[in-house]
Amino acid sequence: MAEKKVDPATGEAYTLKELMAHYKGTYKKKELEEYFDNHCKPVKVRQSKAKAKPTKDAKPEPKAKAKAKYKAKAKAKATAKAKSAPAKPKEAPKEEAEPKGLRTGKDGGASALAKLRSFSRCVLAEYVWLDADGVTRSKTMTMTARPIKVTDLKVWNYDGSSTGQADGHNSEVLLKPRAIFNDPFRGYPHVMVLADAWQAWDDQPAKNNTRASCAETMQMYKSLDPWFGIEQEYTLMKPGRVGEKAKTPLGFNKDDSEPAPQGPYYTGAGYNVAIGRPVADEHYKMCMEAGVKISGINAEVMPGQWEFQVGPCRGIEMGDHLTMARYIMLRVTEKHDCVCSFDPKPKEGDWNGAGCHTNFSVTPMRILPGGYDTIIKVCEAFGKVAKEHIAEYGEGNDKRLTGKHETCDINTFKYGVANRGASIRIPRDAEKAGRGYMEDRRPAANCDPYRVTNIIMKTTGECLNAEIVEAGSKMHTAFVFIKPHAVTDKVQTLVKDKLTEGGLTIKSEGAIKAEVIDKKKLIDVHYGAIAAKAVMKKPSELTVQEKAQAEFEKQFGVAWSKVVEDGLVFNAMDGAKKLGISPDELGKKYDALKKGETIIKFGGGFYCGKVDSIYVINGFYMNMRSKFTAPGTSIYYYEVEWPVEKMKWEDFRGKFLGPTDPAQAPAGSLRNLIYKDWSDLGLKAQPDTGDNGVHASASPFEALAERCNWLRLNLNKDPFGKALLASGLTYGMAKTWFEDPALEFEGGKKSVFDMLEDLDAGDCLKKCKAIAAANK
């Protein structure tokens, strides 16, 4: 039977399945599973007093006599237990009862608080962020509900002029919630919120908001699935004058003289050895209660010096969890009469400094065959940018990285297996297993975890992606298909022979029936931008470049802006209605238009033709769609590839395939052959601009979009697709670009497909990267 738990928000008992049904459409599955596991309380089962059934031979005792006998037995048992029991310990505190009427979910804000008679059932949220110097700051808000997800929280603000992040005359800085933790100091249901700071006046990251840049990098290289684990060393110090930096470690003698040399303190135990253990232990427990991914602690080499480890964490959460762990440490020391220092060299002399050793791996290191070789490759890449990394690894690190005390000199870079004196230590197990992780020992205790993980991921991503991009640049892969009007056995043989003779390798081929094309809307996705211009968008919504407008005026003798203003331009659907004809009839009229006279091309899949007295955008589309979806028809496709050096993409389209108008196609091109021999090939009519026999992709990028549509290709498994992601595009960005949006680039908005048309694979990838950078 499924376990039932009480939902604190409603007071009702549910199974996990019932809870999901109750909150269906409000929260995601993972959020509800976490809520059920960590916040819902087990149902208390009342034990009923079962009466023993008397046997046939048993004689029932009088009620009073049985009761007296039971009492006597219980008293004797209690007396015996009391004599043998040890001294009575202090009564354990009772677990705090679930607040009655607690709400969970989105905070109602000030308007909801104003309607409450009392705030006794409200929740406190401690917002924590980093100031201009990387020091954690915090302040508390009263909320109407306990948040389950980050979007349940409101964006708050604070005085940035007091944290070095704004000027007094324009001081408002925003706090954007990024992660939720339990509040171990105030207890359930209260929370702590990790936030980052943004300027209210322009919504740009505030000074020292290094998280924003780190999040972009982690998203860019998400497919590598980076894991981090940070070993945070810190030193407990004796408090100095208020507002001044503490100078003496907690473990030094009362007269400030130095203790015995380091040696017994590391992982030690006992009085005058493990100095500060109560602080370290309390911090450990508090982090666990908060939900911080803390994985261990140990005493360090210098007295009063300790370490806690956070991780493994994935991507951006490394910085979030370490920042919250540091904040909790500062809160813990408030009541222990000591100061926590993250200084990389808290005490001059023959003492170890304090670091933030960062353990790191990505999927090719950790899981894939050849993982150890990948680790070496990344280490070599780190060596080339050693100075750039050191600049991100904390202030005052030169006092720690001296080449002594288990460190490598700050001006030296080296890596080695099990070498704690190297810049990068590779664990012995990684060498033996042939895969694993690496440890960068250079980051200082006071480093910014977002800056550290950011540059580690950037260097690694660029190193590994360079090979992926290079591989994707060497091969061309196109999607070619015979259009429905030309699908005959003879045409299939001709196309296949032509592809093979041209040195193109056919990776796959096959037929796709009209019914499938119609049901899965393959042709609509294929001609997405064309279809949108023909059916959904109004002419006023379309972007026509200045050069195209000038050509329009030259050809038709009237300005584009004028005909739009006068209402003389229509999309295909509206144009048919205006003329009082069917879409098919409009299509026939459109096919009869002549290039350079009555029809003009504005861009890829973007045409404007003069039909009777009006101008029609993409009037060919409705007629074209019906050709692909007519019952009994189909297309026949070929997925082909060839080395880039064998044939440029421009030649593949212009010379091998031939231009859109088959009558203009060069002799020997595929479209020319079909146009010339159409009758012998079994076609019903000679090909024209619309029915030109064969389609082929206009660029490597468009080819990828077409393969993803028609063949249901996995972007992450395609060489060019992987190279595209490695160039800086996210998966979501690539999918959006497949719809051919107009994007800002080099001073104007342009069609993605147009910008990439006829480029070879390597140039296409470079331009994609540049376009992505221009549209962040």
UniProtKB/TrEMBL annotation:
Protein's GO biological process: glutamine biosynthetic process
Keywords assigned: ATP-binding, Cytoplasm, Ligase, Nucleotide-binding
Major localization listed first in the record, in broad terms: cytoplasm
Pfam families named among the record's database cross-references: Gln-synt_C (PF00120)
Biased composition (Basic residues): 44-53, 65-80
EC number assigned by the record: 6.3.1.2
SUPFAM superfamilies found in the cross-reference section: Glutamine synthetase, N-terminal domain, Glutamine synthetase/guanido kinase, Nucleoside diphosphate kinase, NDK
SMART domains hit by this protein: Gln-synt_C
InterPro entries assigned: Gln_synt_N, Gln_synt_N_sf, Gln_synth/guanido_kin_cat_dom, Gln_synth_cat_dom, Gln_synth_N_conserv_site, Glutamine_Synthetase, NDK-like_dom_sf
Residue ranges of the region described as Disordered: 44-108
Residue spans of biased composition, Basic and acidic residues class: 54-64, 88-106
Domain GS catalytic span(s) in chain numbering: 210-573
Any one Gene Ontology cellular component term annotated for this protein: cytoplasm
Subcellular location: Cytoplasm
Top-level enzyme category: ligase
Start and end residues of each GS beta-grasp domain: 123-204
GO MF annotation list: ATP binding; glutamine synthetase activity
Protein family according to the UniProt entry: Belongs to the glutamine synthetase family.
Record protein name field: glutamine synthetase
Organism: Symbiodinium microadriaticum
